[in-house]
């Protein structure tokens, strides 16, 4: 018996995968900027800086998508059910914990 996953859970998982990819892109852009600065070639530094800026924007959008998908997906948890293999909807679509900023 397989696990049935709702469309909202799939949306959350896809959004989370895009966020992970965006984090990797940000890391790569940071490394590229570091290398460009070591080269002392202004055009390379400028291009790498623009690439880093774009990577930050992509990550920002991905984080917003995850937050929205988690909000929508949490409605599935109002009626948690056994999905056929002992996995609840909470395991398939975790809701991020809000951290207090003080």
Q: Give the N-to-C terminal Cα separation.
A: 47 Å
Radius of gyration: 19 Å
| Assembly context of the chains | single chain
Tally of extended strands? 0
Order of helices and strands: HHH
Largest sheet: none
Number of helices: 3
- Average pLDDT, rounded to a whole number, is 80
Strand content: under 5%
Low-pLDDT residue intervals, each spanning 5 or more residues: 82-90
What percentage of residues falls in helices of 4 or more residues? 55-70%
Find the structural class using helix and strand composition. Answer: mainly alpha
Describe this entry's structure for a reader.
The structure is a single chain. The protein has 102 residues and is mainly α. The protein has a domain at 23-76. The protein has helices at residues 7-39, 42-74, 89-92.
């Amino acid at each position: 018996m397989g696990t049935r996953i709702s469309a909202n859970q799939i949306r959350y998982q896809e959004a989370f995968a895009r966020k992970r990819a965006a984090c990797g892109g940000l890391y790569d852009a940071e490394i590229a900027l570091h290398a460009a600065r070591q080269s002392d070639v202004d055009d390379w530094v400028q291009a790498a800086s623009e690439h880093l800026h774009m990577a930050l924007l992509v990550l920002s959008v991905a984080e917003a998508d995850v937050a929205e998908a988690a909000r929508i997906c949490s409605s599935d948890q109002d009626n948690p059910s056994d999905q056929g293999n002992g996995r609840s909807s909470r395991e398939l679509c975790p809701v991020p914990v809000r951290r207090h900023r003080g």
